[in-house]
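Field: COMPLEX_INPUT
Field: COMPONENT_COUNT = six
Field: RESIDUE_TOTAL = 500
Field: MODE = joint
Values follow.
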Amino acid sequence: MADTFQSSQPIYLQLADRLNRQIVSGELKPGDKLPSVREMAVSSKVNPNTVQRTYRELEASGIVESRRGQGTFVTENEDILFSTREKLKNDQIENFIQVMHDMGYENEEIQAGLRLYLEGGGHND
Amino acid sequence: MADTFQSSQPIYLQLADRLNRQIVSGELKPGDKLPSVREMAVSSKVNPNTVQRTYRELEASGIVESRRGQGTFVTENEDILFSTREKLKNDQIENFIQVMHDMGYENEEIQAGLRLYLEGGGHND
Amino acid sequence: MADTFQSSQPIYLQLADRLNRQIVSGELKPGDKLPSVREMAVSSKVNPNTVQRTYRELEASGIVESRRGQGTFVTENEDILFSTREKLKNDQIENFIQVMHDMGYENEEIQAGLRLYLEGGGHND
Amino acid sequence: MADTFQSSQPIYLQLADRLNRQIVSGELKPGDKLPSVREMAVSSKVNPNTVQRTYRELEASGIVESRRGQGTFVTENEDILFSTREKLKNDQIENFIQVMHDMGYENEEIQAGLRLYLEGGGHND
DNA sequence: GTGGTCTAGACCACA
DNA sequence: GTGGTCTAGACCACG
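Field: COMPLEX_OUTPUT
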């Protein structure tokens, strides 16, 4: 059945993920300017082309906007920010549940296990 | 900045993970024989040495037993099976929560989101 | 009859044993750097892979720590050092007693013989 | 310093050791006939030449006697039996102490450790 | 430089 | 056939 193995996600997607998370978490706020392609390339030690591709990817999803001659900025469109936030959350959750089910864990067990970790900072009912 | 990018987990660990999950999920049952090193190497398209290393890893954790001249078998030791199952579960949960927190989601939001999938959707396949 | 003849311990375990003893005896001190994989391979006249395996084995037991790009170092964790020291001691003692019993020596004779060497001879060098 | 690794003791010496121990332990008694070279070769799954060499070795030490046309017998010379018994014992003890000292264990620690094993369990064989 | 992974192919021991 | 060990040589990531 199984085929080959992951040679890991492309760097430009890893970078996109990281930026998405920084935006969603509020580390990067609406209207914030992202580092220039060249700055980002240096600080992340990747090729500028790779950063370019990441920015293009993010712009395609609407979460950032490129303004010619000025730079790349986090969108201030709240709908897009909100839906991105929801989408990332749901992706994570779906993936998590998928994996847990594949390993044979039942819903109750998953929730019980999770509660164990979340309790202390959260609530339960 | 602190970190670069992941260059992916070693193949022998990816294989170990896969087998661990198959055992934990019951797809491979206690006493079952795993494919021989050579078979697995062919079907997974990796070098026999890499499979060997995987099997060795699994044996070190006690989840399988290798019998020279016979094959490699899923342990029938229930304690080890149980603790492996628990460990994998907790690893997944911890990782999930870690990621969610990094993205700025609060405990309540995580649990609410999860409940939607687990209770609302009856997300079984 | 039951058994054939020993075809000797694997090289990587012989090497591990030797290093374990050097650590336990204090010849290699906590924090000391072990020879690099390649150096050790040359000086021991074995393949670097074999040394790698030895180092990996030692790291799994916690007695050494490998730092990529830097080298392999004796742990400074005193608990691990102590328990390794105890384990090696007990292994030796158990084996010694096993052999002596197999040859038909009684406990009193063993202790008497030992005392001769330890107290009579002042067997220090 | 250290050179290469043991490719294990020659089989003829392993066989000699085993027979020496059987004699010293009384499993083979004075006057007992050892299996013929051919029998021993079959039962131990080694080459008859190897057995031959073992017997020659044992005869050189006086612990067995070859009688032309009759076979090989455990000596009935009590002096030789006794001194062999003592020699084997002392060899083991010396070696044991040597190893323990090399690993940095002091005399008191050795004796204390040994006592733990000898007094707790009593003896049996 | 360091350690870590992987492949290719060999040989051994067990059954 | 099985798993286990070893070598030779390559490439990668880290610093």
